[in-house]
């Protein structure tokens, strides 16, 4: 999220922003699927064999609550992520707009000062 915010404030190309958005969305989806089905992504760095005790659905009345919690977490995380992106993008656009206005004002003041310096009384 911080990387995306930095890209927004630093005027990164929209293609870069789209790629980062897609990668983060993909990661949140994969993370939620792993939480729900435990296909081994969390265990991959440790090279731990699949353990039957961590089976995805070991409850009496399937579907297990873990799966619905994974979906709810994904929706919550994506909502927060995209709201953050929306608000940060609006803030970045306002800051860049103000930066442009200030630059135009400075350039105009410089032009006026040059013309006043050349004016003979």
Radius of gyration: 26 Å
The stretches of 5 or more residues where confidence is low (pLDDT under 50) are none
* Shape assignment: rod-shaped
Oligomer state of the chains in this structure: single chain
N-end to C-end Cα span = 59 Å
Query: Could you say which structural class the secondary elements and strand pairing correspond to?
Result: mainly alpha
Strand segment tally: 0
Order of helices and strands: HHH
Note the topology.
Layout: H1 2-9, H2 14-37, H3 65-117
Helix pairs in contact: 1-2, 1-3, 2-3
Structure description:
It contains three helices and no strands. The model has no long low-confidence stretch (mean pLDDT 80). Helices cover 70% and strands 0% of the residues. α1 runs antiparallel to α2, α1 packs parallel to α3 and α2 packs antiparallel against α3. With 121 residues, the protein is mainly alpha-helical. The longest helix is centred in the last third of the chain and has 53 residues.
Which features does this protein show?
121 residues; mainly alpha; rod-shaped
Q: Brief description of this entry?
A:
The chain has helices spanning 2-9, 14-37, 65-117. By secondary structure, the protein is mostly helical.
